[in-house]
Amino acid sequence: MNEQTPISREERIKNLKGIGSARKRVEDARFTQGAGNYVDDINLPGMLFGDFVRSSHSHARIISIDKEAALAVPGVIAILTAEDLKPLNLHYMPTLAGDVQAVLADEKVLFQNQEIAFVIAEDRYIAADAVELVEVEYEELPPITDAFKAMDDDAPVLREDIQDKMEGAHGPRKHKNHIFLWEQGDKEGSEKALADADVVVEELITYQRVHPCPLETCGCVASMDKINGKLTLYGTFQAPHAVRTVASLITNIAEHNIRVVSPDIGGGFGNKVGVYPGYICATVASIVTGVPVKWVEDRIENLTSTAFARDYHMTGKIAATKEGKITGLWCHVLADHGAFDACADPTKFPAGFFNIVTGSYDIPVAYVGVDGVYTNKAPGGVAYRCSFRVTEAAYLIERMIEILAQKLNMDPVELRLKNFIKKEQFPYQSALGWEYDSGDYHTAMEKGMAAVDYPALRAEQAEKRAAFDRGETRTLMGIGTAFFTEIVGAGPVKNCDILGLGMFDSCEIRIHPTGSAIARLGTISQGQGHATTFAQIVATEIGIPAEDITLEEGDTDTAPYGLGTYGSRSTPVAGAATAMAGRKIRAKAQMIAAYLLEVHEGDLEWDVDRFQIKGNPEAHKTMKEIAFASYNQAIPGLEPGLEAVSYYDPPNMTYPYGAYFCVLDIDVDTGVVDVRRFYALDDCGTRINPMIIEGQVHGGLTEALAIAMGQEITYDEMGNVKGGSLMDFYLPTAVETPVWETDETVVPSPHHPIGAKGVGESPNVGGVPAFSNAVNDAFAHKGLTHTQMPHDHWRVWKTAEKLGLSG
Amino acid sequence: MIPGSFDYHRPQSVSEAVGLLKDKGDEAFIVAGGHSLIPMMKLRMSTPEHLIDIQDIAEIKNISIFGSDVTIGAFVTQAEIISSEALHGICPVLREASLQIADPQIRNVGTIGGNVANGDPGNDMPAIMQALDATFVLAGEEGTREVKARDFYEAAYFTARAETEMLTLIKFTAPAAGHGSCYMKQKRKIGDYATAAAVVILTMNGTTVQNVEIALTNVADTPLYAEEANRLLIGTSLDDASIKAAVEAAKAITDPADDGRGPKDFRTHIAGVMVERAIRQAATTAS
Q1: What number is the ipTM of this complex?
Q2: What does each C-alpha distance from A661 to A152, A488, A747, A767, A768 come to in angstroms?
Q3: Which of A662, A711, A761, A795 is catalytic?
Q4: Chain A residues 116-135 with CB within 8 Å of chain B
Q5: Which residues of B touch A300 (CB under 8 A)?
């Protein structure tokens, strides 16, 4: 009754390609052959195209919009403005942050490239021609481009639509351009710690405005079937179910009549979490015309109008003893949210999880205050390859640690080791309210130090500095360390929701009679490789080879409800749901096996891919046999079939961490920085697919390099956006990207079913401070305390020049 | 990022192309590799009604070398310049500079004619052509005429070429055997224009500079031929003081834009660093 040629247990484990296997990505067959199916690949019969008329000014009243010439272009069907959306009450839409955002500018524009009118035409070329012909007359108003001036007494009021509403979504607003003040921790206690301290350091640290810049821009195809009343919305959505619910709430179309499909997505990095005017306009256009309507951004539109990231002006103060024991932390953030508060954060967290800012350190008392303000810039504030505002927090604490070390004349690594939360302190209650579930920071740091031979690097640096002072070289060597702790996997429904939707996630597994399976999840891959890794979790849990498991995501008609993929939440939340659904299947399989083997369930044990009788492994039923039996045998007390669904509400966040080291050389005459070594040790708990982890770390480090060394979206004093094309917005190529060395420790999350913590975002969180610390470190001996990012050639040269080092 | 509408023409000869230019007047643009023009059209900063694609014209696709006289057709790609051993043998700076233009995909399509003719101050080849004292051959309805590279550039995107003319050939005499050369370019990343770049072609007579030609890229609205810097170096032994004087003379003629690469003072400074480094590097290859 069992297989003809028994294979070894090791062989059976290997055949599953389950957790721990460096299985190749199943997605790559189509991606590498150009056979992906992205939104812009969708072409439906009779489909029309939409394109936006956008504001040339950053702050202006709209006097008139003349559509006549554009409407006369053959092939132009209609042009929507705010006036057309008002009767539907769709000229404003709710944001994820409790604010509203203009879908089409209502009387006033608030940032350059804001959407004013939506041209609907037979093809995208006609639409683009017509956009040119729409004439908008403006009355210019003074813009606010400096967040520090937003709350001046004489500052112009930006948001006239809410100027009488001084109670915002997160409490009282203290100025008409103020959004919220979010405070956490013990302000008085922190101030007392500062007053009593031997040593205090203070610094204003700006994390500049950047953009996630996924290779595929945002877009959608809306298709309203007027016969059956069903709306299908294909789009670049990182959270398709949330989009369906929000679409239902704002359009009043019943939720069962809306189907949202996320096809292949070419990178998201947070940019595709938000709801954008293009989605609303394409939907309205399809409802009005009765045919499908496509809208896809171009690169400039993506960089200048859909969600930016960061733009935090952070003031940090650290108190410490003269021996280097940190006694308190105080921070204030001035958060530039642009024209509308469209941050993507859980509802109760207007500054995300910025209160992870105590980092990896045992800090007894801490305070955070974040003031959000409006400016004449694009809205957004998304988590660019990080959990909500965690990169900003990690950057602040990791810069402050270096600045404190400099003040104490202590090695920054030694200072970190002195202040780390100790292994035996976990679970650790942080001063700002989080319960860190697990960690072993000392081991990770010491492993990293040994790998890079940290003392030898410092010795080399000392020699190089002496050679520089003797005039023998014009380069300075910098060593940057970062030890970050992330908080990911949002999150427990008790404190995490988005627009009232709890942040659980889900998985449904169905085993077919012949022993293969399909699994569907509430998440959506944008390149993370879910079809590969989630199949590995299922394989290990139920003993079916990963290659026999189809994985589907992104279609709300078939996938179970979930909150989507961002904030490194897929593995911590949906991955847990996958394991739990697998365990439900295994529980039923055990009952079937007991019936087939004519023993009591308790007499069976699970072994890789089968249940066997304890003490008699020859007597067993494989999952394949059990699956077939579940469909063809009448088993008393059991329903036929073998499937399960799990909705997983995580008990806590997960806390991945890592130790990163960067070594670079700076040419003081040109400002050119050569990163000669980068070592990244990550602890993401249980490692599902080491190859995918390595790929994620490489990608995240490359983005971190981009942010630290060049990325920036700036505005001139008139509010004209600069850096809105890839000519200026820094995307490094393979040539600029150094070789990455990766390493790991494995401390599994104690509350996660398989102990996995999430990894995709760690390298961005830890990478940015490592690069920036290295640049700052190169000049530290010459008296530099802090220089702002991005560390592009000009700024680095300027730093050298100010210190009197440039030729 | 959608261009306006235009008519597309693909002439088979220079005379046919010139005829089209005459017929269509200032609404017609020549497209070669398209790397400058097509992005401008997509941004609607350029809206030609007629595009004249010259890729089928055989007579402008060759590199001819007779002794030290070099003729390069306008439709020769950067990749073809890089792969020409004969050209490299007598004028290595062309390969060196071409390898610093964008990436292999772009170099497979981008042409030397497009690079020198459209007057974009960010392009690398115009300064090199000035250093080589190259001559551009322009074909018009009344036949051909020749313009020196040093006289060709008037302002950004404005050149001595009339709207009814087409650049067909680039001619120059290779520098003397044993010359040293270098193209030193600082940029933010692959594919970027130079923050500043300098070309140096240097001929030594023993330890004395017999001749030097220095020109600069992207530090003004045209390429810059650094005549004064050259004058200050000729006859010297490339001592530090002479190099410094030449560097200062080169910096003095720059007038860079304040852009994403940095403010004016920084770009002028980098121009100086590039000149100095290019001189020192060229000296190591001169014999």
Answers
A1: 0.96
A2: 42, 22, 20, 9, 11
A3: A761
A4: 124-125, 127-129, 132
A5: 1
